[in-house]
Amino acid sequence: MNLFPENWFKAASSVPNLMLALSYQVNMFPIYKGMRNVSDRKYLLASATGIGFCVFSYLLVGILGYDYAGVEIDANFLNSLKYYKINGAFFFTINFFFLISIFFAFPIMFFGCRNNFIALMKLVLLKDS
To answer: Percent of the chain beyond pLDDT 90?
Structure first.
């Protein structure tokens, strides 16, 4: 493992991920206003819990991904998965759940998208009844 990347263009491909990870602060005020019996202490605990869970899960996925792919890891981890190295059902399960997580995570991450997503779901659910 090197201290600095050998190919700076490949290293720059992680910048969009970092920027998206740091965009949570736009959700701070809507989350604060949406909490029941809110106080600064309760919000601090909620924020610390969320950030701690994210740090733990990112580190776990990073370590397991590096353990699986080694130095051949690609910036897009799904490209590093080789069909012949793992069970076919597991390969398709990983890819399927990645698509599901992107589909549901994006509208929830951004306050405006979340409100529109909830409004659409209410329209769909009320239309059926």
So the answer is: 8
What are the tens digits of pLDDT across the range 52-69? 988 898 888 778 777 777
Give the chain's length. Answer: 129
The encoded tokens of residue 125 equal 């659910």
Half-sphere exposure in the Cβ direction for 43 (13 Å, CA): 14
Kindly report the CA angle at 14 between 4 and 91, in degrees rounded to 5?
A: 110
* pLDDT given for residue 41 in this prediction: 93
**The pair of three-digit structure tokens given for residue 84, joined into one six-digit string:** 């012949």
Q: ∠ CA 8-61-103 to the nearest 5 degrees?
A: 90
What is the C-alpha separation between 52 and 57, in angstroms, rounded?
A: 9
Please report the pLDDT score of residue 111 as a whole number: 67
Say if CB 71 and CB 65 are below 8 A apart. Answer: no
Residue 42 near residue 35, CB atoms below 8 Å? yes
